[in-house]
Design a protein that fits this description.
Elements (H helix, E strand, L loop, with lengths): L7 H14 L4 H8 L4 H8 L4 H15 L1 H4 L15
Helix pairs in contact: 2-3
Length: about 80
């Protein structure tokens, strides 16, 4: 039976994925990885936080009434939403 090869880079990628997927500050992850900038970190691993962005937007919309203001999930016309 063959044992999969595990490289240090694979562990680094996994750690980066876990940190960013757990909403760690990209600037902190950048410093841990030794990247020159957080932009470099996000260029390499930014695709991993797409779900976090959707979740954050959903949370904001759900707590501020933004969804109602956009007319989503309500029968009220935009601009005529009920005050919270």
């Amino acid at each position: 039976m063959g044992v999969p090869t595990l490289r240090v880079h694979d562990l680094r990628h996994t750690a980066s994925s876990v940190w960013l997927g757990s909403e760690a500050d990209p600037k902190v992850v950048q410093r841990i990885l030794g990247h020159a900038s957080a932009a470099m970190t996000m260029d390499l691993y930014g695709h991993l936080i797409d779900q976090n962005l959707r979740d954050a937007a959903r949370k904001i919309g759900g707590t501020t009434g933004a969804r109602r203001a956009l007319g989503a999930g309500t029968t009220e016309p935009p601009g005529e939403e009920t005050a919270l």
